[in-house]
Design goal:
Elements: H1 10-20, E1 29-32, H2 42-57, E2 61-66, H3 76-89, E3 96-98, H4 103-115, E4 119-122, H5 126-131, H6 150-161, E5 171-174, E6 189-193, E7 208-210, H7 216-223, E8 227-231, H8 238-250, E9 265-269, H9 281-289, H10 304-310, H11 314-324, H12 335-347, E10 352-353, E11 355-356, E12 359-364, E13 372-377, E14 387-392, E15 395-399, E16 421-423, E17 428-436, E18 442-450, E19 466-468, E20 470-472, E21 477-484, E22 509-516, E23 529-530, E24 533-534, E25 538-541, E26 545-549, E27 559-564
Parallel strand pairs: 1-2, 2-3, 8-9, 10-25, 12-18, 16-19, 21-27
Antiparallel strand pairs: 4-5, 5-6, 6-7, 11-22, 12-15, 13-14, 15-20, 16-17, 17-18, 21-22, 23-24, 25-26, 26-27
Helix pairs in contact: 2-11, 7-8, 11-12
The protein binds adenosine-5'-triphosphate (ATP) and magnesium ion.
Length: 572
């Protein structure tokens, strides 16, 4: 898909203007700031493509920063998976930073705020604080602790950090403006106590942890970020982001003494939301913990590892993000866009193989040979993409639906006395009859073949109305096919009333055993794992869809996941 010629997105336009104006001495620095409290999802990829994309395009640097200010939910498992996924997507970060690297500095900065009379320790309950916030049209009510003397604030904040105060009993608040129309200015919480959970990196060193608003912008500033790009829900936080940084500068934290204008600004774009799924780590964690999916990498999950296991490639995912673009309005992207991206990506890459999903035996009554090896192109019309052998013999499996006992002028496939049909990459046949069991189910189909009609020979040029798939009975192999579909049954599970878990699509996974041609036998082994990523191959099952080898495959059992059907079945 076109990447280069595409018009600049609105953030690229801002960056170009900043460069023209010589802001930040011409430096471009971004960051991707995930909280390590879950696996990355496709929404994060939108942010990743923006953050790393800007740095790549303008010779800047994009750092990876773990926003690890809440030890209750964070874990190194997530830190590792996040790095793995970003690398797999093909992006390279400059440095890896952690907000926890700055705990010392942030604590000192908080003390500066107290010393300047700009912060106070509040002993009210979270409920009381919330009640006093007011509404956007009504001013809030000042806390009775708001005018506590500076000394007392210093002593209490120290006591909070010393572990002398119980979790939830005190917070440090910025003293700004309880009547400000922006609710985020109504004495926002800067620090809270968390003693119940050790931090994944700093252990028990800290009993107080900074809130997002008092950590994010500060981390950006410490690191030298120039463009701090995030999603639209942070628009309302932006004035506070600027306020805290302005105060830091007032207190003398000038990060680049040679360039007084060198600072960070926040820019926001629309979040990615996709139909039939949820885009929240909290909800995904619930699905995983409750066993409603098989794990973070369940192929139905919108996580990067789930999409990977489903058969999505970095190229397809990046092209999808490129297609949807960046705007300043929230919206919902149809799931089919994602599927179209993988179809487009695999169209000219995935080798084709035959697999029969609902087999019925076909006997070619006039075929007397031992069988033969035919040669088929992996992708029709592209001999340069390789060929494979297809075993052909007297007994084959075909799709049950490709035979009909009664001939019918609108049915172009096999029926006795009906038309000629081509077996894909092989011969032309004509049905002669069938056997049925006592229940009336067809057990065997009979046909004759034309020995002079072999594909690739002169006789092979003869046209038929239909071509059908087949595999040879002796050499074909069983494959476990996991047929994945939408995770949710409704378009926007987050917008519905009630429990989102009740909206799961009961048919999101169907497991069937299919008969595939022998060419797939080379996939019968445990896939190699490099840097934590299973190295697996992609295929197209003719007429069925795009499939990928599942990492659970062993020498005894080949498992293939359906990435996407060939065409969209969900259009209304
Ligand atoms: P979640 O709500 O799923 O927990 P989050 O926003 O809390 O997501 P973070 O780890 O804080 O997750 O996000 C890291 C970065 O990814 C942030 O800059 C955030 O704006 C961005 N991001 C998260 N979700 C989306 C999304 N759906 N679309 C675009 N960007 C996203
Ligand atoms: Mg977050």
């Amino acid at each position: 898909m076109e990447t280069e010629e595409k018009a600049l997105n609105f953030i690229e336009q801002i960056v170009e203007k900043d460069l023209q104006e010589g802001k930040n001495s011409g430096r471009i620095q971004t960051r991707f700031p995930p909280e390590p409290n879950g696996y990355l999802h496709i929404g994060h990829v939108k942010a990743i493509c923006m953050d790393f994309g800007i740095a790549d395009r303008y010779n800047g640097v994009c750092n990876l920063r773990f926003d690890d200010t809440n030890p209750v939910k964070e874990d190194t498992e997530y830190v590792d998976s996040i790095q793995q996924d970003i690398a797999w997507l093909g992006f390279r970060w400059g440095n890896v930073y952690y907000a926890s690297d700055y705990f010392e500095k942030l604590y000192d900065l908080a003390i500066d705020f107290i010393k300047h009379g700009m912060a106070y320790v509040d002993e009210q309950t979270p409920e009381q604080i919330a009640e006093q916030k007011g509404t956007p049209t009504e001013p809030g009510v000042a806390s009775p602790y708001r005018d506590r003397p500076i000394d007392e604030n210093l002593r209490l904040f120290q006591a909070m950090q010393n572990g002398e105060i119980e979790e939830g009993k005190m917070v440090l608040r910025a003293k700004i403006d309880m009547a400000n129309p922006n609710m985020h200015f109504r004495d926002p919480i800067m620090y809270r106590i968390i003693t119940s959970h050790p931090h994944h990196r700093t252990g028990h060193r800290w009993n107080v942890y900074p809130m997002y608003d008092f950590a994010h912008g500060q981390s950006d500033y410490f690191e030298g970020v120039t463009h701090s790009i995030c999603t639209l829900e942070f628009v309302v936080h932006r004035p506070l982001y600027d306020y805290f940084i302005d105060r830091m500068i007032d207190f003398g934290y000038q990060r680049n003494p040679n360039d007084k204008e060198d600072r960070t600004h926040q820019f926001e774009f629309n979040r990615l939301n996709i139909t039939y799924t949820v885009m929240s780590k909290r909800k995904m964690l619930q699905l995983v913990k409750e066993g409603l999916v098989a794990g973070w990498d369940d192929p139905r999950m919108p996580t990067v590892c789930g999409l990977r296991r489903r058969g999505y490639t970095p190229g397809a995912i990046r092209s999808f993000i490129n297609t949807i673009g960046y705007t300043k309005v929230e919206g919902m992207i149809d799931y089919t866009w994602l599927e179209n991206a993988i179809r487009e990506d695999q169209k000219e890459k995935a080798p084709r193989v035959c697999a029969i999903f609902d087999p019925v035996k076909l006997v070619l009554t006039n075929y007397d040979g031992e069988g033969e090896n035919l040669v088929a192109e992996n992708i029709d019309g592209h001999p340069e993409l390789g060929t494979r052998e297809m075993r052909f013999a007297k007994e084959l499996y075909i799709e049950r639906g490709d035979f009909q006992e009664e001939s019918d002028k609108n049915f172009f496939r096999l029926s006795p006395g009906g038309r000629e049909v081509r077996l894909k990459n092989a011969y032309i046949i004509q049905a002669t009859g069938c056997d049925k069991d006592a229940a009336g189910n067809i057990t065997t189909v009979y046909a004759t073949y034309d020995p002079d009609s072999k594909s690739g020979t002169e006789g092979g040029n003869r046209k038929t109305k239909a071509t059908i798939n087949w595999v040879e009975c002796q050499t074909c192999m069983d494959v476990e096919a996991r047929l994945y579909d939408r995770l949710f049954a409704v378009e926007n599970p987050s917008a519905e009333e009630g429990d989102f878990r009740d909206l799961l699509n009961p048919d999101s996974l169907r497991i069937v055993t299919i008969k595939a041609e022998a060419a797939l036998r080379k996939e019968m082994h445990r896939p190699e794992v490099i840097n934590g990523i299973a190295q697996v191959n992609h295929y197209q099952f003719l007429k069925q869809g795009y499939f990928v080898v599942d990492p659970d495959t062993t020498g005894d059992k080949l498992i293939m996941n359906r990435t996407a059907s060939l065409k969209d079945n969900w259009q209304k």
